[in-house]
Amino acid sequence: MKLAIVTGASRGLGAALTAQLLADGYRVAAIARDCSPLPEHPQLITLDADLADSQLLPLLLERALAALGDGDSYTLLNNAGTVQPIASADALPDEATLQAVALNLSAPMLLCSHFLALTPADSPRRIINISSGAAANPYPGWAVYCATKAGLDHFTRTLAAEQAQRAVPALAVSLYPGVVDTGMQAEIRAADPAAFPNRPRFEALKADGELTTPATAAARIVGYLHSPVFGSQPVLDIRQL
């Protein structure tokens, strides 16, 4: 049995990834603050948790793996994230900034660490960290989002370099999924233009029908997960494939 853990799994891209993995025969542990929107499935395990609470993460990963049981392969998809706070660097709210760093960066780093420590080192293991083009491009108003995604990219590069030295390396990719029609995009379009001057661009993407559906994005991501070239680049934009 192929096993997978998906964070931010209750809606948007995370829910679509969960559905695609289940359709492909995986047993999935879905993690979100509230997993109740997910339809029941015999191979689905749901765990409600706040991933910004870093102290809970070791136990959470242990519970997920225990519930999944033994498998032929293990996959971790770190999808949970937030674009908030949308504010210039001279006006960042303290609490929201700390929450975003915890969710966007600390959580995937720690979950990767515990995933690697707790899964069999001789089994096929793959990690996808959902990143963003904002990791490589500065957007005024997204100082926190850009910085945390850039940190996630470089963490993934380092993890991949370390694993390359192992007898059976785990493969890790920080993946840009493109512009996906999710709740995060709605938040962006609702942002104060004074705080986020690029808002008109994202409004135009929605108006012009240029957003990718979550289901389409998930199918491409899971297809790449199964690809023999997975992991050949530690940071990748799915649109380049």
UniProtKB/TrEMBL annotation:
Keywords: Cytoplasm, NADP, Oxidoreductase. Belongs to the short-chain dehydrogenases/reductases (SDR) family. The keyword Oxidoreductase applies. PROSITE patterns: ADH_SHORT. It comes from the Bacteria. It is found in: Cytoplasm. SUPFAM superfamilies: NAD(P)-binding Rossmann-fold domains. The keyword Secreted does not apply. This is SDR family NAD(P)-dependent oxidoreductase. InterPro entries: Biopterin_syn/organic_redct, NAD(P)-bd_dom_sf, Sc_DH/Rdtase_CS, SDR_fam.
